[in-house]
Amino acid sequence: MPELDPELEPDLVLRSTRVITPDGQRAASVAVSAAEGRILAVLPYDTGTHLRGVRTEDFGDDVLLPGLVDTHVHVNDPGRTDWEGFATATRAAAAGGVTTLVDMPLNSVPPTTSVEALEIKRNVARPAAHIDIGFWGGAIPGNTADLRPLHDAGVLGFKCFLLHSGVDEFPHLDPAGLKAALREIAGFGGLLIVHAEDPQLIDGAPPPSGPRYADFLASRPRAAENRAVEGLIDLARELGARVHILHLSSAESLPRIAAARREGVAITVETCPHFLTLTAEEVPDGATEFKCCPPIREAANQDALWRGLADGTIDCVVSDHSPCTADLKTDDFGQAWGGISSLQLGLPAVWTEARRRGHTVEDVVRWMSTAPAALVGLRRKGAIEAGRDADFAVLAPEETFTVDPAALHHRNQVTAYAGKTLHGVVRSTWLRGHKIADHGAPAGPTGRPLTGRLLERQPRA
Ligand SMILES: [Zn+2]
Q: What is the 298 CA–ligand 1 centroid distance (Å)?
């Protein structure tokens, strides 16, 4: 391991016998400049005399990992701030070990479909940011001319829908609109992220109504996802464009995605904690806190998603935290808002199941920090190594807790995980060398300026 360059002046050292580095887990002392907010060096655990006098935090056998990067969060602010908001979302994220989130362009009013709307959102987010925040732009009918200005203004990519988004102010693209938007985005090297369900197959399925989960599941068939993914692969190939599949639920798409990547198509894919940890079989009738689109599917499908993670076909695991007020979660699956809240719980939820299936914390870090940071090109995030931002989570991986909705910092404490016992307690969270959460509560003196910053797209390496 390298010695510390004598020119560098750390003001903080974080030690653990289990630091997750890009080269694996090891005992190490991480030298940090909190003044500069970055990691200076990853040093031997028993680092010598030159660090004497520097404030040191020793986490013992708790795991020191890079702060999570959650690229799929619906903050809904401004406009639907009663559903969530930047202050509550980023506080919940910090409590859960997340140090960067990327906000989705819809559910807020206005949606992020023009530079003007982006600036409105940034002005709301800036004073409320407990963690770092990036933004997705939106591609909707009629805003193709807004895409490049949004790209230049720093959004990390563009989201679109192929069918009704759930809110009328963010309409979906038809096939011609999708192609036009993707051609434009490919022209400046941008990234399109897509809610991939085929509208015709959804329209042809029996519409959901009533409290039975089986009826809801039948209304969102795997075939609709499979067909949409196929179409996106073809389009990405034809246009030489980068396309990312959001919240993959149907594992039947995985062989096609893997084959497309082998032939060089620039397609990536994420899945979500709820698809990896909850199953259709366990959803009680009327329990619409489990409703999301695409839906939570059967246990056998979940096993196949885990195989997709293990073999590298699935790149990332991100929350798709999409809350609403409790009154919108009626017991009718046709009427209830679709969305699952898990921003604060993603790490322990995924780790609990990953651990049971023989995966390591390193795997979880790759899926939930390194790969999402790489997806959006945030090169200072996603790893513990010299030069990166000093963003960390400290995890007690073998400690368990039972999910108490009242302990969540989400604005609305409706959660599909209520009462579950999970492995992995987040002891503390650090952003650019400052402790921002301590045992699930905000850390540091009240009244000091918040540490979170707004992030812009970095030029591609
Ligand atoms: Zn979403």
A: 20
